[in-house]
Amino acid sequence: MNSPALLLLPVLLFFRRTAANSAEEIPWTYSGLVGQSDWSQYFPDCGGSSQSPVDVAMAQTKYDPGLSPVTPLGYSQHGNQPFMLHNNGHTAVIELPEWMGLEGLPWLFTAVQLHFHWGNGGSGHGGSEHTIDGRSADAEIHVVHYNSELYPNMSAAVAQRNGLAVLGILIEAGEETNPAFNNIVNYMSRVRHADEITLIPAFDIRSLLPKNLGRYYRYNGSLTTPPCHQSVIWTVFHERLRISKAQLLKMETTLYSSRDGESHRMLLQDNYRATQPLNHRVIFASFSAESGKELSSGEVTAVVIGVMCGCVGLAVIVRFVVKTIRFFKLLHRETVVVNSSSSSWDVLHNNRPAPMPRGKNQEKSEETKQDLALSTTSEAERKAEPSPSPQTEP
Ligand SMILES: *[C@@H]1O[C@H](CO)[C@@H](O)[C@H](O)[C@H]1NC(C)=O
Ligand SMILES: *[C@@H]1O[C@H](CO)[C@@H](O)[C@H](O)[C@H]1NC(C)=O
Q1: What is the pLDDT of residues 50-73, one digit of tens each?
Q2: 10 Å Cβ neighbour count for 310?
Q3: Concatenated DSSP letters for 137-162?
Q4: Apex 50 CA angle, 47 and 55, nearest 5
Q5: Helix 359-382 × helix 297-339 angle, to 10°
Q6: Which of 86, 90, 115, 145 is catalytic?
Q7: What percent of the chain shows pLDDT beyond 90?
Q8: What pLDDT digit, counting tens, does each position of 358-380 carry?
Q9: β-pair partners for 116
Q10: Based on the domain organization, do 35 and 112 belong to the same domain?
Q11: Ligand 1 in contact with 156 (CB < 6 A)?
Q12: Which numbered atom of ligand 2 lies nearest the CA of 219?
């Protein structure tokens, strides 16, 4: 990390503090005092009818063929300037440069930050906010953007309808380490306590997104934390990001929601909100239930074998047709040779069949033709009976 970047820190801190509105000063929590059931007393929008997160009941989603893949803009052009990682007491936040954005929605959106929601390291409930068919994932990433076509900045957009677009990426923990995720978890110990900030090397944000950005759920919802403004166009990807169990555990056990030196140390865990009623909202899917079905490895094998058998069958048919045509051409040629009194080579030459379409076959058929010509000529010379079956190829 270079020293100019370090010098910037107090400036960034200053802007962060002045940008914080008074609503953020109310010390809300996930459970306990001002826990999620109390949020709406202090933040009226949290009691609204279009809240997030929600459960995605796949059978109840509506396929919308008009939903094209979302396109991240500049996610991979991270440049050399470090990113700011911040423990805000509720989650770990990475501020994103303003040249990153999102295309593929009705407006252009500009990236603001990304943050995480997780569980408590136990084997009970997962830590994702959105659930699919009632089941949580292990954790969830939210990449927050504001509508930069309609609004000049995040603060102006945050409470407006269609003001924000958030990408939701469900995280599944397994055996394999995700190198991209190390760009974050390896630095979390630098921001153990609430309000701590550090600079981390810039990295490719696209690598935190699933490979397939074409399959997602879309609905109108809200911020999942106070003040819960109902301003978010949600995109929750169907494909999950895989990290290792060790990486998940590190994220779940490194941070505190309490400040440094506070007597009551509180681990920052289970920072996910319960799913909210859909009320009359519809969740749209960018893919149909059928195409959304994952193929099992058995099904994949079946498809591969089927395609191979089909190809072999087709090759056999083509070969049979070609042979039959050659057979009749040969019959015709022999007749000509036998009836001709002039040079049989000339006649054969003029009767050359049209070239075969593909290179290899063409070479082969050329060879065969030569053989045929020779044998026909000698047969013609010997005035043998016209019995053509010189083809011995399988
Ligand atoms: C955001 O835009 C509004 C409206 O133009 C402006 O009043 C406000 O100062 C801007 N806020 C920031 C933090 O730039
Ligand atoms: C969200 O609400 C807008 C109205 O502001 C509506 O046009 C749009 O279709 C809704 N989108 C979804 C995904 O429900």
Answers
A1: 999 999 999 999 999 999 999 999
A2: 10
A3: -SEEEEEEEEETTT-SSHHHHTTSTT
A4: 105
A5: 30
A6: 90
A7: 63
A8: 444 444 444 444 444 444 444 44
A9: 141
A10: yes
A11: yes
A12: 13
244 and 317 together in one domain: no
Q: Residues 82-91: pLDDT tens digits?
A: 999 999 999 9
User: Cα separations (Å) of 159 from 21, 31, 42, 226, 228?
Assistant: 13, 25, 16, 11, 9
Read off the pLDDT of residues 221-277 as tens digits, 9 standing for 90 and up: 999 999 999 999 999 999 999 999 999 999 999 999 999 999 989 999 999 999 999
| Claim to verify: residue 52 and residue 79 sit in the same structural domain | yes
Atom of ligand 2 nearest to the CA of 162: 5
For ligand 1, mutation pick of 12, 112, 146, 155 (most atoms within 8 Å of CB): 155
In-domain check, residue 344: no
306 and 194 fall within a common domain: no
Domain contains 85: yes
For residue 334, what pLDDT is reported?
55
∠ at Cα 157 (52, 238), nearest 5°? 40
Do 30 and 74 share a domain, yes or no?
yes
Q: Which of 162, 220, 283 to mutate to test the pocket of ligand 2 (most atoms within 8 A of CB)?
A: 220
Nearest protein CA to atom 7 of ligand 1, as residue: 156
Q: Is 90 a catalytic residue?
A: yes
- Assess whether 289 and 299 both reside in one domain: no
Mean pLDDT confidence for 147-161: 97
Quote the pTM value.
0.72
CATH number at residue 32: 3.10.200.10
Question: Which of the listed residues 306, 325, 344 is the one where a domain comes to its end?
Answer: 325
Residue 162 maps to a domain = yes
- Sign for the pseudo-dihedral over CA of 148, 152, 154, 157: negative
CA contacts within 13 A on the Cβ side of 157: 25
Structural domain containing residue 200 = 3-294
What total of structural domains would you count in the chain? Answer: 2
Residues 307 and 206 in one domain: no
Same domain, 202 and 321: no
Instruction: Say if 53 falls within a structural domain.
Output: yes
Structure confidence at residue 330 (pLDDT):
65
Average pLDDT over the chain reads 82
Between the CA of 60 and the centroid of ligand 2 the distance, in Å, is 17
